[in-house]
């Protein structure tokens, strides 16, 4: 366990990207970025004695509220990447965790900022973060949390592309909830294939509002891509009937072969 | 590269099963079994100089026709498994490849038998297997291929459970085709959740008939589980309009916690 410039403990692991974590262009999918960073943070939790067994004693679970993902370049098939994480800072109700994905030259490919809360498992309600579950990370106690970029809301007048998706059995993880990475799959899959093969995300702001459940038919809605300050931008939402489950804004760059 | 009791070269790699390759019961999903064994066979191909670049020279691709998967126990979350493969035997048109997944005590958890053909990429037609792409595996040349158990066809009179699935952008792999593992996802996802959480596959016979395409709406159809010789058995098919894309028969055992 090494120490970063900042106070919080930094945890790093290598990951070799298999073909089945990649899309048709052999680049890692945005959903697999989320899956692998969460895997590495779980490994840090276990190393510090803060794994699921420990949280069970408090009847608590960590729940992510928001991600801001900056992408310099997507990892590619068979590439070995180094994934690092630290629980940077926290206040009474929120914890701020960062992740970095670097290539073999130490260049940062992806930087993820995320905001987390602790949820009482029985009441399914947010509770203040007990010191016992946060202090071992050596996070910095702060008054104000770093502000992540919020997704832009979709307006009723926007011209939308929509597609229905069935929430599947295999979308449910070991906690009995839909794995968050699937939201990112639904959010992006709705875009036309010729757009997805010629663009890659530059920045993703993703916010979770309400949980979807097994068996739900969700609808993924996206504004038609428009140019803004030299990038293409799309605004997204996942809805179940009239309830918004997640929102996102994605800035895209043209893909270079 | 070690040698097996049989003639063909055996290739082995370890794999640690991350949470996102598991289902709600923290067992590896059938689809991820296929993804990981194919990864390991790709690594053997590369080690022997028989990777995609080499096949490109012949304008050929390997295509799997049928799997027979015998499961003693599914690998579980965080378990380190050893995955082995060998290209056991071949004749003019077919190659027979086996895979073994073993636990840390060397016990076999999963044994997969599979039949492959070489396909001309332009004509999308099966061609006889060139010696150059098969000899380096030291496979045994045989007259008769081992017979894999064929799935039982569904009858029109069968009482079926059906569910539609959209073929998604992320279902397409780097070759531009739907990754075969997704068929297994559609085939099993259609079953009720309370069946899937209380049973695990004991044997899966899976046969590919016709390729599905991006944008297709496929229907997964399954007979209601019935008991046969002490096991539950289900018969499956994936259809696109009137065309059968894949068939499967799955024998299930009750899950022991």
UniProtKB/TrEMBL annotation, chains A, B:
UniProt-listed CDD domains:
4HBT
Q: Which InterPro entries match?
A: Acyl-ACP_TE_C (IPR049427), Acyl-ACP_thioesterase_NHD (IPR002864), FATA/B (IPR045023), HotDog_dom_sf (IPR029069)
Give residue ranges for domain Acyl-ACP thioesterase N-terminal hotdog: 10-137
Instruction: Cite the SUPFAM superfamilies for this sequence.
Output: Thioesterase/thiol ester dehydrase-isomerase
Q: A GO molecular-function term, please?
A: acyl carrier activity
Sorted keywords for this record are: Fatty acid biosynthesis, Fatty acid metabolism, Hydrolase, Lipid biosynthesis, Lipid metabolism, Transit peptide
Entries under Pfam families matching the protein: Acyl-ACP_TE, Acyl-ACP_TE_C
Its domain of life reads Bacteria
Q: Which residues form the Acyl-ACP thioesterase-like C-terminal domain?
A: 158-253
Write down the PANTHER family for this protein, in alphabetical order: OLEOYL-ACYL CARRIER PROTEIN THIOESTERASE 1, CHLOROPLASTIC
The UniProt similarity line reads: Belongs to the acyl-ACP thioesterase family.
The molecule here is called Acyl-ACP thioesterase
């Amino acid at each position: 366990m090494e120490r970063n410039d900042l106070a919080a403990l930094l945890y790093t692991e290598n990951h070799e990207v298999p073909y089945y974590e990649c899309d048709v262009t052999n680049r890692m999918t945005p959903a697999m970025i989320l899956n692998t960073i969460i895997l590495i943070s779980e490994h840090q939790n276990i190393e510090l004695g803060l794994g699921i067994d420990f949280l069970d004693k408090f009847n608590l679970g960590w729940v992510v509220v928001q991600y801001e993902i900056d992408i310099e370049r997507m990892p590619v098939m068979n590439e070995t990447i180094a994934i690092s994480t630290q629980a940077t800072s926290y206040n009474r109700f929120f914890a701020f965790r960062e992740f970095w994905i670097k290539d073999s030259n130490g260049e940062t490919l992806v930087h993820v900022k995320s905001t987390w809360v602790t949820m009482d498992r029985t009441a399914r309600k947010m509770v203040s973060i007990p010191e016992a579950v946060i202090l071992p990370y050596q996070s910095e106690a702060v008054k104000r949390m770093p502000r992540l970029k919020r997704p832009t809301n979709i307006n009723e007048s926007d011209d939308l592309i929509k597609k229905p998706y069935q929430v599947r059995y295999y979308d449910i993880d070991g906690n009995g909830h839909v794995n968050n990475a699937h939201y990112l799959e639904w959010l992006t899959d709705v875009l036309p294939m010729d757009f997805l093969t010629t663009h890659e995300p530059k920045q993703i702001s993703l916010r979770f509002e309400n949980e979807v459940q097994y068996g739900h038919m969700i609808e993924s809605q996206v504004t038609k891509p428009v140019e803004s300050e030299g990038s293409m931008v799309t605004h997204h939402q996942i809805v179940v009937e009239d309830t918004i489950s997640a929102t996102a804004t994605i800035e895209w760059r043209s893909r270079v072969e």
